[in-house]
Fold this protein.
Amino acid sequence: MQQETKPNFWALLPLIVFLSIYLIASIIMGDFYKMPIIVAFLASSIVAVAISSGGQLHKRIDLFCKGAANSNIMLMIWIFILAGAFAQTAKAVGAVDATVNLALSVLPDNLLLAGMFIAACFISLSMGTSVGTIVALTPVAVGIATQTDINTPFMVAIVVGGAMFGDNLSFISDTTIVATRTQGCNMKDKFKVNSLIVIPVAILVTIVYLFQGSEITTTPTVTPIEWLKVIPYILVLTTALAGVNVMIVLLLGILCSGIVGIITGSIQFWGWIAAMGTGISGMGELIIITLLAGGMLEMIRYNGGIAYIIQKLTTHVKSKKGAELSIAALVSFADLCTANNTIALIMSGPIAKDIASRFGIDPRKSASLLDTFSCFMQGIIPYGAQLLMAAGLASITPLAIMQYLYYPYLMGVAALLAIFFRYPRKYSR
């Protein structure tokens, strides 16, 4: 599966088919809910198998299945399963409502948006995982949106934006570890450069949310806070912040929700079991999409699609600015094709290191660009784990969230400006 592949433009056809069906068809129809993303992935997966050079049909299908069942995909599916079970049990016992009431009691209306963004930034920075942050905060964000006049996709997008902030900067994030290791620099040095690029963006977005929050006038009716029912979310957040594995965090959340529900009389034992089953079943479409995406994207790699992109991006580089742009494009395209920013960094990191060495780019700058652009792309693609998870938990489509992703879009713009205007100066000479 990891054999050398020759560059091949036609290997990108499944991705083109997916984007055409899902995005272009939805735009033409003027309704992003009419085209199910799962149908678009089914069509593109069929194309991927049909055009593959893997030999007889059963061998090509076998290649597709191996891509769908790789360890990263399986880990994502486990997280989706546990997240679905936790979200539903927490909802069934009243933990979500209790947590929402607590948030509404603490934060005035005009600070709800900025407060949610800052919370997501802090949690993701501490946890080092955007998916874990989204799992923890999305149900709360949806609950707040339901009890106020805030648009649900907008509120969910705030959580996603804050989650990508920490994914990009955290010392314990996979992306930070891979970016620094492949470029040969220290994490703290990469953090310094990276923070100069993205922290001004986070401050700007916070100010925007403060301004938009001032327009919120609806005063929700807040019921008394049931502190015992807040415990499952407190447990999830504290264990996540302590660096506990996200799967263990979710398992603890499921157990705690059940215990609290039984103690408070909110749910019986079999009701707890049924809630878990309902939550897991609700993740069924998301799991199918993840499997189809994993298989399709592996076929693209196997047939030389990513090799083609790499070849085209590195052919005509002649200056530091051009080299930095090629690094940015390289990791962005890799993430577009893999829907996993860590894998995209693993694939593009060594090539970026070669480009940086040839053109004298500071390793701290190249590591920052790699991490920032991988998180930018991962935070906006509708078939990435982050948007799929957020959309699944909120029962909306990924495209409904995309139009409100202020922080990821501005993060990408800031990274481009850092290339064009040679910023930070100290690391761009």
About this structure: The chain has a mean pLDDT of 85. The radius of gyration is 22 Å. The CA atoms of residues 210 and 257 lie 33 Å apart. The longest helix spans residues 187-213.
